[in-house]
Amino acid sequence: MSKSKIVGMMGLIAFTMGILLIGNSLAGEKGKVASRIDYLATVVHTIKVPDMEDHTIWLVEAKGIYFSEKWGNALVYQIFTWDSIKGSGPCRGYDRWAFPDGSTIDGPWEGKSTGASVEGTLTLIKGTGKFEGIQGKGKFKAQMLSADQYYGHQEIDYTLP
User: Fold this and answer.
1) Are 57 and 82 in contact (CB under 8 A)?
2) Which of 1, 51, 73, 118 is deepest in the core (most CB within 10 A)?
3) In a domain, 14, yes or no
């Protein structure tokens, strides 16, 4: 066997051993991740509450695209409720991020709307694939662009086992 083939085989063996021994690069990681998500509301139900003027309960389903330099891109499915009195009030919801490799992250959030913006907190409660066992907490800010389009920024502190 030639010297170049031996060197090539040794390199391939070293690479394979590195993958097997190191495994998922996220395992045992603790850190912070920043991201942006752009959303489009796909279903919006509103119910007027008769107790006062301009009081409405909203139920919204939205889809979005998650952008993060650290974790890459994902598709987002979001559902939430909003108790709006004259455009302001509490909201709470649930997000699922689905990454191209099949990994997912799930988590609830809650916040307060003050007109065209929302600020609040979120929790990471479940992950699959490379995010198996993820836990985390963070903050977000979202801004309405139109009646069915909005975007948000998040900063999350997380740990992986």
Assistant:
1) yes
2) 118
3) no
Tell me the three state secondary structure of residue 72: coil
Tens-place pLDDT, residues 29-58: 999 999 999 999 999 999 999 999 999 999
| Residues 149, 39 contacting (CB under 8 angstroms) | yes
Q: What percent of the chain has pLDDT over 90?
A: 81
pTM of structure? 0.81
How many Cβ atoms are within 10 Å of 55's Cβ, its own excluded? 15
- The secondary structure element, H or E, covering residue 98 is strand 88-98
Question: Which domain range does residue 153 map to?
Answer: 24-159
**Can you tell me the distance from the alpha carbon of 30 to that of 137, in angstroms, rounded to the nearest whole number?**
12
Task: Please report, for the domain that includes residue 45, its CATH number.
Answer: 2.40.350.10
